[in-house]
Hints:
Blueprint: H1 4-11, H2 20-24, E1 42-48, E2 53-58, E3 73-79, H3 83-92, H4 97-104, E4 111-115, E5 118-129, E6 134-145, E7 148-153, H5 162-169, H6 174-177, H7 180-216, H8 219-239, H9 242-251, H10 259-325, H11 340-361
Parallel strand pairs: 3-7
Antiparallel strand pairs: 1-2, 1-3, 4-5, 5-6, 6-7
Helix pairs in contact: 3-4, 7-8, 7-10, 8-10, 9-10, 10-11
Amino acid sequence: MKRPDKYFKKIIKPLFHPGRTKEIFKYNPAVQPKRDEAIETKLQVFNYSATSIEARELKTIEETFPYHKSDTISWINIEGIKKDTVETVCTHYGIHPLILEDILSIGQRPKMDDIEGILYCLLNMLYFNEEHCSVEQEQISIVLGKNFLLTFQDEAHRDVFDSLRERLRLGNSKLRLRGADYLCYSLIDMIVDHYFVVMEKLGEKIESLEEEIIRSGDKRSLAKISSFRKELIVLKRNVAPVREVVNGFLRSESDLLDDNVTKYYKDIYDHIVQANDVAENYRDIMTSLQDLYISHVNLKMNEVMKVMAIVTCLLAPATVIGGIFGMNFDFIPYSHQQWGFYATVALMLIIPVIMLVIFKRRKWF
């Protein structure tokens, strides 16, 4: 027989997402995590030059092989990670096993490597889940080689590169006039710029939470503070290391990076520094909101205690009067008078009214 509290968990919406903390901190670099194989893999190629472009979807991984030695620029995007597929394409393109291991990993920290003439960059693309008010991440692996760029995405149904694909289709686009290193810059720049979209939505939720706490803070508000602090941990953990990634490109002496393109990475660096500052500001705001919630609770407690103290003071004269006239003496003044009872009740009412007037004039409430 099921316990009654299990039914309440299904009926009542939980104050926070159970298991979210474990989900955030579950990654252990010493233990190789097991990746779930993607159900569907989508292969897309953009092979272009200044005068022509070929954009199509591929059915098999073997169809990507001819683009390895192409004189034009080839961007091969693989959505949905399968171990066999990744191993096959990495073997053909001469990608080092360490890079292959990073592509197949999960929960990896953003990083940049230069191994045997191949530049590798790992970033996390961030999304904001409106329903759960949570920050979701998708691991993106970017492999830059001579005249080719390979990208590996975990999911096959969303990314932020649609506008980039549209720009590639334009004949006068700057992307078409430059090499694969500029395409790599454009991908990283779009991922970083999308961080601001996520932070803007998260900032709106934090602002609403602040108004909610000021208006009527309760336990649910405290649970939201705890939940948003966890999401800020996710945001900070993905944004902060990107500065080192961009610095890796700026300091790299690889022949794959043209000097005229390297300067564009300074723009990404400025953006990621700003994003990191915003994430820090949000964390400070959450600390302030927690202090605000505690102050609000104390204020409510003070208001309750003040009302109770006023009521006690107002009832004190009636208690004293009733106690005096209720004593067991043979003779009490006015006790045998016909109007004695009404006079006593009137006195019990008049004195609290006078006290209320005095309290009001002194602005005690």
